[in-house]
Amino acid sequence: MDDRLSEDLAVEILCRLPVKSLMQCKRVSKGWYNLISNVCVPNISRISSTTPSGFLFTFARKKISSYHNAYVSYPQGRYCDNNCSGFLRSCTVLLPHRAYQLQDACNGLLLFFSADGRHYVCNPTTKQCIAVPYVRRKYKSYVASLVFENFMSPHYKIIRFPDIKFGCSFVKLDVFSSATGNWVKQKLRIEQSVFSSVKFIERTLYLNGKLYRQSMSEYLLCFDLDNLIAKAIQLPVANSIDKFGFIGLSKGQLYYANHDSSKSKFCFWILEDCFWRLKHCLSISHLMSLCPQVRELCKDGISTNFMPYAIHPSADIVFLGFPTMLLSYNLQDGKLEVIFKMVKGRLICGGKYSVFLYSPSFIVLNDFTNHPPRSSLI
Questions:
Q1: Model pTM?
Q2: Nearest CA among 206, 202, 223, 249 for reference residue 353
Q3: What is the DSSP string of 317-354?
Q4: Which DSSP symbol is given to 370?
Q5: Which phi and psi (to 5°) does residue 31 adopt?
Q6: Residue 209: CB partners within 8 Å, gap ≥ 6?
Q7: What is the pLDDT of residues 273-295, one digit of tens each?
Q8: Which residue in 202, 209, 249, 212 sits closest to 228, CA to CA?
């Protein structure tokens, strides 16, 4: 780094460069390499995480019982599936040639689970794919979550959830850390007995040291990874048309969205100190009046297939969808737009559970494979 420039000024200048040019500047000197890797890249990754570049989701063909991954750019709405060139192709070619399932996406990283029982972490932007050490499962569930704070550290964690048995007062999570290359067990005390009989929905969200996951008993389950406590938070709507709802993150807050009990509105709540506060309500009849396609798909004014799919991480925009279509609604100006429509004969599977907002991360992942990892799982 040029001694005539202060570090703050150098960072300000470098972060204004195009990403490709910035990466090439790493070659200038060891000082520039460290400054760009440790300061500039986390800064631009943090900024990019507030602006999604697309959606990842799973789709099925109507006449064939097979499932595939797809990617749609945002806001352009360009579509490609795993047989096309583009983003998804550049990502999946990093994986070994075996069947795989997209399990999670977090701040630019993707977590895949393969047919041979291994997890793979991919960064499509840096074209990295890292195989996580294999660990035999002792339980049926293979649900896993990815934890990655790209502006804090190049390291990530994978959290695997066991089947919780009736009457348990604690839960043991399998936790992999790329900082050590090891799997360990974390024992969390269960605060509420409601855990004893719940079944999980696979989708999770990470916020401020906590993993949130919906149950099938109208509770949101909170796993506090820092304080090693698990607790249940009752969801705000009872007797809803779809009691599982949607959870998402926006502006550093956790949102829950669902139809209201009258089935005529979408309601959005935010979680504050374990209590829900109503933030927005969207009339379905109003949405129908704004878009002929919505009106056609909600002929009776109600459609169980019409639901919130995602929420913008930094803007007042919610994404609503059908199995055949994804739309955006701006809460500020009331504008409803169709982002894309599915190819005829294909349907989005799982809706709000399988649609991931994607934002690129420019952080180069730590390659723990240079040091043979150990596993402390029993």
A1: 0.85
A2: 202
A3: EEEEEETTEEEEEETTT--EEEEEEPPTTEEESSGGGT
A4: G
A5: -65, -45
A6: 224, 225, 226
A7: 889 999 999 998 899 999 998 98
A8: 209
Q: H/E/C letters for each residue in 13-41?
A: HHCCCCHHHHHHHHHCCHHHHHHHHHHHH
d(CA 110, CA 362): 13
Q: Percent helix, strand and coil across the chain, each rounded to 5?
A: 15, 40, 40
Distance CA 235, CA 257 (A): 10
Task: Report the alpha-carbon angle 153-155-158, nearest 5.
Answer: 135
Half-sphere exposure of 276 (CA within 13 A, CB side): 17
Query: CB neighbours (10 Å) of residue 313?
Result: 18
* Pairing verdict, β 265-272 and 275-283: antiparallel
Kindly tell me the burial class for residue 204, based on how many C-beta atoms sit within 10 Å of its own C-beta (0-12, 13-18, 19 or more): buried
The more confidently predicted of residues 5 and 38 is: 38
Helix (H) / strand (E) element for 142: namely none
Residue 12: partners with Cβ closer than 8 Å, 6 or more residues away: none
Report which of 195, 215, 304 is spatially closest to residue 256, judged by C-alpha positions.
215
Give residues with Cβ within 8 angstroms of 323, minimum separation 6: 305, 342, 347, 348, 349, 351
